[in-house]
Specification:
With 369 residues, the protein is an alpha+beta fold. It has 13 helices and eleven strands. Helix 4 runs parallel beside helix 9, helix 5 packs parallel to helix 11 and helix 8 packs across helix 11. 43% of the residues are buried. The structure holds adenosine-5'-diphosphate, 2-acetamido-2-deoxy-1-O-phosphono-alpha-D-glucopyranose and magnesium ion (MG).
């Protein structure tokens, strides 16, 4: 795939943003899509901004289905938010059509793009700077879950098949170790062993789903703190973004992915592992907030499995980072060599720390049943 910048002008011309853009700059810290912020002076002197994204071809094989999901889910959310007296334009994403109509634009190099209204006066955090901020994100992701409780799940396309199929993720890691196309396996023996030692764990949530203990729900599946926009005036988590992976899934995974990313005080690619530790208090705070936002829509079994959601999302993400490192970094964007291995290492450290605090984590969730 060519650099997104190569076709950016062509894409800008494909949209009517109410005037000519005076800048389009790379924006945000997502690992998957190519994201630009477009600034457009309007005839009346006011300025409007938009998010323009090239959808990752490595991650998403059917951008048509992906956009159909996003249009349907955002329209549904907008109706629910309006019904509850909220502001749909700020509290969910709004897709902007290209001049040719529809929900996406395909450039001359085959790249598929989409645009959203930029949600103004918001902040996107890369770390839970305060417990209040982390709690606010928990309420927002819990609420997201509740807002979509009655959404017809069978109408959603599976945008990435086997996305949170941890058993399948481990199989793919084994295949990458065996093929070892970049010759990198020798430098990751400790991490590979750590993951293989937890093969039985990879089945725990999936088995509970197969046994009917955990229900299938409409879930977000990528609930990092930087996938929620926080209102800069009120500090309230306003808008859940990055809806590419909204699919049927497990509520414990939405909880767990937030814990993985936010319940610690280090970056995802921190190289000094002594700084990477699970903050049990943040786990407790997030649990309370997520359940508050979900307003009773989780079953007691789901609440009881929350620590497993945290551990499995972290283990799975580590497996995925390591697989990508072994395969040559074709999936997660990197800004330096070895970054995906560093990311895999932080996830191993967090899993080990969750195991060390396992009884405490279970005692915390018991309080909320
Ligand atoms: P990726 O899948 O690569 O993570 P995202 O959809 O999460 O892409 O977008 C990347 C970043 O762009 C977000 O973390 C956020 O900072 C910013 N962003 C995305 N959509 C909007 C929006 N509608 N308004 C404001 N900022 C946005
Ligand atoms: C990716 O797109 P982004 O940066 O919000 C990834 C998640 C991972 C995360 C790890 C579609 O999220 O699954 O947990 O990186 N998204 C996709 O930081 O694969
Ligand atoms: Mg994102």
């Amino acid at each position: 795939m060519v650099q997104a910048e190569q076709t950016l002008n062509e894409v800008l011309e494909a949209y009517d943003f109410g005037g000519a853009a005076d800048s389009a700059v790379r924006f945000g810290e997502g690992h998957i899509n190519d994201t630009f912020r477009v600034d457009v002076p309007q005839p009346g002197g006011e300025r409007r901004r938009f998010i323009l994204q090239r959808i990752s071809a490595a991650a998403f094989k059917r951008p048509d289905q992906l956009m159909e999901n996003i249009v349907n889910v955002t329209e549904y959310l907008a109706r629910e938010i309006a019904r509850q007296g909220g502001d749909p334009v700020r509290e969910t994403l709004t897709v902007v059509s290209p001049r040719s109509g529809g929900d996406r634009f395909t450039d001359s190099a085959g790249g598929v793009w989409r645009a959203f209204l930029f949600v103004e006066d918001t902040v996107c955090y890369q770390a839970a700077e305060t417990p209040e901020l982390f709690a606010a994100s928990g309420r927002a992701f819990g609420r997201f879950q509740r807002l979509l409780r009655d959404y017809p799940a069978h109408t959603l396309h599976e945008t990435i098949p086997h996305f949170h199929d941890t058993e399948d993720r481990l199989r793919k890691l084994k295949a990458a170790v065996a093929a070892n196309p970049m010759g990198r396996a020798k430098d990751c023996q400790e991490e590979i062993r750590f993951m293989l030692d937890r093969e039985a764990d990879c089945s725990v949530a999936l088995q509970a789903l197969r046994d009917g203990v955990l229900p299938l729900r409409v879930t977000h599946n990528d609930t990092k703190l930087n996938n929620v926009l926080v209102d800069s005036r009120t500090g309230k988590a306003l808008c859940v973004i990055d809806l590419d992976t909204v699919m049927p899934g497990l509520a414990i995974n939405d909880f767990g992915d937030s814990i993985r990313f936010g319940a610690n005080h280090s970056a995802e690619d921190e190289r000094d592992l002594s700084k990477v530790n699970l903050d049990v208090e943040l786990f407790d705070i997030y649990t309370a907030a997520f359940l508050e936002g979900a307003e009773g829509s989780l079953t007691p079994a789901e609440v009881r499995f929350l620590p497993w959601g945290a551990k499995l999302m972290t283990l799975e993400c580590g497996i995925r980072f390591l697989t990508d490192h072994l395969e040559g970094d074709g999936y997660f964007h990197i800004s330096r060599p070895g970054q995906n291995l560093d990311r895999a290492r932080t996830q191993c450290k967090l899993v080990a720390d969750m195991e060390a605090h396992w009884d405490e984590l279970n005692a915390i969730v018991e309080k909320y049943i």
